[in-house]
Structures are given as C-alpha cells and as structure tokens.
Amino acid sequence: MAARRRGTPLHQRTAHAADRAGGDEVTREPDPEVNRAADGGRKRFFAEHARRLRREYRQNADPVTESTHRRGACTETHDGRGHVVHRFGDRDTLLSGRGRAVATQVADLALKAYDRPLFTPDEQVDKVLGEVARSGVDVTLGCFHQHVAVGTDSACTTDERLVCTVEVSAETEEGGVCSEVVPWPTALDAAEGGELVARAADTVLARRALPRATDLPEGRDLVLLAGRAGSFFHELVGHPMEADVVASATSYLTTRAGRHVAPEWLTVVDGAAGGAGHNYRAVVDDEGMPSRDTLLIEGGVVREPMTDAATAALLGVRATGNGRRLDYRHPAIPRMTHTRALVADGAVTRTPDGDWIAPLDLQLLTMNIATGEFVFRSYTPLHHREDGSVVRLPPVDLHGQGPRVLAGLEPYDAESKGYGRATKGCGKLGQFPLVVTFANAGVLLPAGLVDVREARDG
C-alpha cells in the first residue's frame, strides 16, 4: 500500500522483494545519468555495510556497549512524477540468484562492500576513555561507520562514511547535566584522542563548579556561541528548506523564496562534501547523486531547497544530493547532512549590551513549520556578568517566531565551529536517528527578540 509522506503529494511503496534487471558495464565513477532529475522508469540501487555503536564509560565500571549492524540492499524505481517503489532485501537477497535486481558487476561491487571492516574500539581506546571517566565524568563514545555501493541498477560507485565522537557529561547537584562533545580521531593514536577528551572533561567539571543563580535575569541579550547552535538552524532553516516540505507549500520559507528573511551577513548552507572534525561527509548521497553545497539562505535571501531524486523531478530542479535513508530498509527522502550557519567575512560583530546569557545544550521542544513558531530549551544557560563572573542559570525555554528571529539576528563571532553527536540524529518521518552534523558562527539575539522563560517542568 502506498504511504504518503507527511504534508506532501509524494508517494512511496515498500516491498520485501526483488526485481530482475540487466545492465551495462559497471563504473566506479558516479553515473552521469544520476544527475538527471526526471528519472522515469530508472531503477536506483543502494547496498550498505554499516554499524552504529555506542559505548559508555563510567567510574569504576566496565564499558557498556550498544551496537547495531546492517548488511543489506534495496532498489527504488522512479516514475518521474514523484512516485517511488522501494524494495529491499537482507544481505545478498537482491544480489544473487534468480532474484538478482542489478547487473552482475554492480552486485559484485556491493558484495565487496559487505566485506570491508568497520571501526571497533580496541583495548587502548577503552583504557584512555576509562581513565577520563575516573576523573568524575561520564564518557560516551559514539560511532557511525558505513560502506555503501550506490547508483543505478547498471552502474554505481562506492563510498565510505565515518562519524565518531565522544561526549563528556557530568550531572549537577540540582539534577541538570553539563556536556561537551569532541570528535574522536580514528586515524590517530588513542592517546592523542584521549588528550582531546580530557580537555573536554576539564571544561565540563569547571562549568559544573560554577555557582548557580536562583533568579532568571530579564532583558538580557542572548548569544548562540560558535559551534553551539547547530540544532537552532537545523530546525529554523533546514527542515523548512527540505524539498518535500517545500513541495507541500507548508513551509514558512516557501512563500519567501527569493526574498530577504535575514541580514545580508548570514548564509546557511548544507553539504556533505569536504571538511573535517565532526562533519558528516559523503561523496554521493544514498541515491548516488553527487553531494554538493546547497545554499538555503545566501546573503539573507531564501534560495534553493534540498532535494532527493523524486522531489527534484517533481519540482523540476537539479538534484542537490540530499537523498538520505536511515538504512537500506527505508526509502530515501530529502534530509540534511552537514548544515552550516555562516557570518560573512568583514561583517561587523557586536558585543552584547551589558551582561548576557549563553544558552548551551539547546534542544527543540516544538516547532510549527508553517509559521516558524518555536520553543527551544537550554539545559545549561550561563549568565555572563559585566564584572566578568559567570553563573549557571536554571534551564530556560526560548519562545519565538522564525521570521522575526531570523530578521533580527546580529553577528557576534565570525569564526565557525563544528558540532555533532554520532549517538544522536534527526528523526524526520520516524526515521531516527539519522546522523546529521552542524557548524555555526556566533550570533546574537538582542534582548526581547525571543521570550526567555524558566523551564517549569524540569
């Protein structure tokens, strides 16, 4: 039975089966035909060998590991009008025998991907992270590692995606949590990674030791520090600029296409190619489309939406390489990869008026994608006083309107920093958790731009 994507006219059908198909000689380069948006009748192929790993280190306790392993493949047939039929199979169901759905060369390439090794923490990693945990913090190593063969049923390319991070956290006396996240350098010696994590632990413990104020100050500027506001722009700009939402005409940014919604110094871009650190990186997306930077907001102006093959065909635009799937059992849909909010070079940054608040550990509570109305919670707001002292505040909720907030932002720090957790991710349409990462420069929300309230429910 066809299932309608939320708020869109697009349909997808899923079956645990395989079609037979022949093909031409395989190539390891992305297929030029993959760049075509109108793809009626063309079958796409995706195979993966992947692991999601979470390993927790606590004081005087052995590491506890959660791990999910995936080996499988799927095909998707597009009719060129936004309809997609999705079929999947475990291991080599679609790759061998009478049920083979792709050319022999493509199947061979996919089977080789199944044999490629995945990152596994060794004894040295356990040793250094265990030592950090004994300093009085909780340490969580997260890893998403994936080998894919992806393209059409006759030609595909291979790709490797690896995101590995370490979260360091410590509970406060009143039951809150202070946390920091750093990338785990899988290519380096574990001792070097341990130094990064140890510095994060020092930051967390120093933050927890700050005195705690009981009263929430009013009329203060808010500063979203560099590398600490990824989820803010992910929700406020990213989801409203995903093409299935745009096609439904329910995004508050849809009617503002080509218009200024933010100051000229602000650009928001999504793309998985290049970069380092926390970034999710991919040469091609989960449909074989080359990954490229997509300008969501450029110089304050609403630009192009992020598309998969189906929505690109439906909207008649060039695909952006944002077709992503939770795993081979799920259809590809338009989703973010690595979303960056940037302050233009030469922009005049502003210092807050008087003392100010830095709302750390932001998480979305609610958002109306049609109006842009939102509520974010900061679990660790810090009050920076004029005399240079810093105190922790109770958790706060930020209530605001997307159009008004985007228009009222001011630049605070032009340096951009990355952020992301391999243990968490985006849960669009129930596909959770898809790994996404962020980067942002520092931005300032002048006093009164959002309504700051103490979180009464914890």
Automatic annotation (TrEMBL):
Metalloprotease TldD/E C-terminal domain boundaries: 223-391
Highest taxon of the lineage: Bacteria
Positions of region (Disordered): 1-41
Name this polypeptide is given: Peptidase C69
GO CC term, one of those recorded: cytosol
InterPro entries: Metalloprtase-TldD/E_C, Peptidase_U62_metallo, TldD/PmbA_sf
GO molecular-function term, one example from the UniProt record: metallopeptidase activity
Compositionally biased intervals (Basic and acidic residues): 16-41
Similarity field: Belongs to the peptidase U62 family.
